[in-house]
User: Fold this.
Amino acid sequence: MSRTAHETPEWEIAPVASTSLNRGPDGRMALTLQITRHEKPVATAPLRLTVAEAERVHTALCHALDQEPVPDNAPPCRKAIQYPGGRQRF
Assistant:
């Protein structure tokens, strides 16, 4: 059975918008995720990452966002930096 663009997924996992990334006493970072089924909350769970794992996720997201326009409310790491010689880097 294939899904159409109008159907909602049976299961979805997404960051909880009202929480931020926390660092635990062991140095790992934890991002709270909301698990839903048929758009109804089922549970929340922390995604715990080591610094190395967080760096890999950060790198993957940077590459994925590279061609996307930068919104006005983007964090500083998404804003272009003008370097001497006219080069732009992110």
